[in-house]
Amino acid sequence: MLLTPFEWTIAKRYMLPGRGEAFIALVAGISLAAVMLGVAALVIVMSVMNGFRAELFDKIVGLNGHAIVQAYGGRLDDWRDVLKEVRATPGVIRASPLIEQPLLGSFNGRVDAIFARGNTQEDIQRLKDKVVAGNLSALQPDAANVAIGSQLASNLGIRVGDSLTIINPQGQSTPFGTVPRQISYTVAAIFEIGVYDFDERFVVMPMADAQTLLLSGDSVGMIEVQVTDPNKVGEILAPVQKKLDGRAMVTDWKTINAALFETLAVERVAMFVVLSIIVLVAVFNILSSLIMMVRAKTRDIAILRTMGASRKSLLKVFMTIGFVIGAFGTLAGLALGFTFLFFRQSIVRGIELITGQNLWDPSIRFLTELPSRSDPVEITIIAVMALLFSFLATIYPARKAASTDPVQVLRYE
């Protein structure tokens, strides 16, 4: 909808406040601010929810793989043959044996539940970037060294170099009953994954040490698998499941974390719909301000009509005014939203300092920091939606202005 110089001059004149038009200008300013806040809210919430899902996926799947192959009895005795079959499957990037068992950890009289993880040396080194204290190179077979999560270290008051006693309730049988197995390990490193549950529970050790601790011989608990496309993990590993039918089962990340990721997906859709309604309500302010402007400019419109201005020209003028208000509000909302996201962590800390409340408790929200990840497609949809709503809001008042009868308005002038 291109404007002629005449139409653009009239539109600019009406967008600038004149004498006696301060109230109309105020309503137009409120309309712009309402659209800005609605768009900013959509950008912030959707980016944070996308970031939350992406961070959870990266951290959970990054540690546990995209799928696990687990024996029905909990022990995979022929794991070397299974590992060879999995690695030969097209689409599989990495596959490695894993032992994971819930046990108890003790230090200076403090006892806490832990997850003992037995990893290969290659998998242990994948945690190198997550280490906050100590050195992973000390985790060698039969060296009795382990790495623990930062939150577990905080809960037990343990530091690098201290001895952590791991208690296995399934110990050796004696005439007096089963004696729990207790082995002391030196804490060689402390890591921080960024997922509270992992940092609070995980104790990582070499595979051979985990087998000795659990008296499992040469067996492993499971095989973790990483594939080229996480969203097609079921299709990629379908041949493996068919070969291992009756011996082991393949469980992918979608099944393991189904409740969590489905909840996030539902919340994401619900928040988008609710905040879109807020933008729609904000756009109604544009409608009301334009209606007020048309009523205030009725005499001017009638004069323009008598001077030769067409109905189409007046329609374009008032639609342009409303659309420009919506466009500026959208641009300001995008700028405000991205500014908030850039300083989000500082803003959260500032609000916590003022209110004295912990707004981001990692024990509840899994992650240690407020995440954010903006989707360009989603941001484009938000902007287009706001502009579309603004455009639709201009149609009625613009048609009302275009249908003004100059004879009726100027009859008694």
Query: Mean pLDDT, rounded to whole units?
Result: 83
Q: How many β-strand runs?
A: 10
- How is the main sheet built? 6 strands, mixed, barrel
Rg of Cα set:
32 Å
The coarse overall form would be elongated
End-to-end separation: 34 Å
Helix content: 55-70%
Please mark out the parts with pLDDT under 50 across 5 or more consecutive residues, or reply none: none
Total helical elements: 17
Beta fraction: 15-25%
Secondary-structure element order, N to C: HHEHEEHEEHEEHEHEHHEHHHHHHHH
Helix/strand structural class:
alpha+beta
Main sheet: which strands, in order across?
A: 2-3-8-5-7-6
Quaternary assembly: single chain
Q: What's the number of structural domains?
A: 2
Summarize the structure.
The chain has 413 residues and is of the alpha+beta class.
Q: Can you offer a commentary on this structure?
A:
With 413 residues, this protein is of the alpha+beta class. It folds into two domains: 5-57 and 260-410, no CATH class; 73-245, no CATH class. 56% of the residues lie in helices and 20% in strands. A six-stranded mixed β-barrel has the order 2-3-8-5-7-6. It is elongated. The model has no long low-confidence stretch (mean pLDDT 83).
Topology summary:
Layout: H1 5-15, H2 22-64, E1 67-71, H3 79-87, E2 92-107, E3 110-119, H4 121-125, E4 131-134, E5 145-149, H5 150-156, E6 163-174, E7 177-191, H6 196-201, E8 202-206, H7 207-214, E9 222-227, H8 233-236, H9 238-243, E10 248-252, H10 253-256, H11 258-296, H12 298-306, H13 311-342, H14 344-355, H15 362-365, H16 376-402, H17 406-410
Parallel strand pairs: 3-8, 5-7
Antiparallel strand pairs: 1-9, 1-10, 2-3, 2-6, 2-9, 4-7, 5-8, 6-7
Helix pairs in contact: 1-13, 2-11, 2-13, 2-16, 11-13, 11-16, 13-16
